[in-house]
């Protein structure tokens, strides 16, 4: 869903008049750099104590307008009009460390200010930014800025885009932002803002994109949202908003994306939801909605993603005809008060990519889908499904993730024939039997990243692991698996979580386990391991959880972090483990933890 949000916002920004490429085009043939502007830029550079992006290393020489100063563009009079410094958000090694200099407020001809994706720029947004009265774009995304949003930003009357998302800003949304009557996009998401959505924002009649998601905002969703006739994108998810949905919101005929998930919203979905004729994505998950899902939802001709999970919606589901919701690709009705019994035909007969019906009281055999080749993700967990799985995956050539956990499925692992491209299989808490060698062998796909078959009836031993596997999570806990962990476990070089707890595994903990550098969760508890905990585990730098409880281990616990600071319960009920956090080993003086 976050990818979907990103796509919507990129499409919106690229549609704005005056976005970065246009602004750059308007600043061709610059004059010689103003000495005052050059000094302001160098003062900003001086506040950045580390720059691994290399951008600021180009800021040398007298002329900041000559094209050599990366990210700087000037107007024909030699005044800085654009400062655009954008770092790659997903590359943690590329960043700027420091603070924003108030000197940037001394660039009176600045129209575009973008400092985004720099990760380690801290401190407040300078009050001096309120002097940038020609500014049309202010984007300070994905840094580590702190403090309140300056109320002075409300003086930037020409502003069309304001994005301060992905920082550590706190306090209220300033009511002064309601003065920005030219604003087309506002994104204050992924901060720690609190308080209500200010009533003054009703003045933003040109607003097309409104994102306050992932904050701690409270109060109700304001009625004035229904006045934003041009709005296409609203994301207020992951806040503490309460009360009913305002009816006015369902007059927004241009609205394409609406996410109100993870709030405290109550009441029902009104029939007027069918008026949102442009809607492509609707997410109301994780609220307190009740009542029936309205039949008018079938009139949403462009809707392709519908997520109503984790509410209190009750039977019956609307009777959707073959022509209703014709664009639907993804549906999530999980964890409501629905007692479906079987999957409705209007779901099984469609060409869907994602079907999520967890906790919908489904019974009987696994459903058959008319277009199995289109499915990429299925979640039918927490139901009462029974029987075998042998033909379920037939023709599911596009399937990537399947979750069938917490059902009553009864089959042998040898019957499991999964598509080659699958990345995640979750079958935990069923009645699955057989041997792990049926799914972990030299034919196991390199695409497979997650296997969870815990809490079943699986027996036999753990097979050898061949090279080339890309498993990140392997959970085989709470079964009847015996034998030893093979030393070839070290071939799972991508492994992050390993849980073999509550089995009958014997032998020693293999030294090769220490080669799994990405491991951060390890549970070997309640087995029959003997010998020592190998010191090779000290080579795993990111271990956050480990449990060796209830085995037959003896000897000194590896005396280095984090093993010597894990709680003693992680080592309890063994033969003779000693050393921090357990009592000292005999004849050895306990040392201060490293």
From TrEMBL:
This is Leucine-rich repeat-containing N-terminal plant-type domain-containing protein. It is found in: Cell membrane. Residues 35-75 form the Leucine-rich repeat-containing N-terminal plant-type domain. One of its GO terms (cellular component) is plasma membrane. It comes from Gossypium gossypioides. The keyword Transferase does not apply. Its main location: membrane. Residues 1-25 form the signal peptide. It comes from the Eukaryota. Keywords: Cell membrane, Leucine-rich repeat, Membrane, Repeat, Signal, Transmembrane, Transmembrane helix.
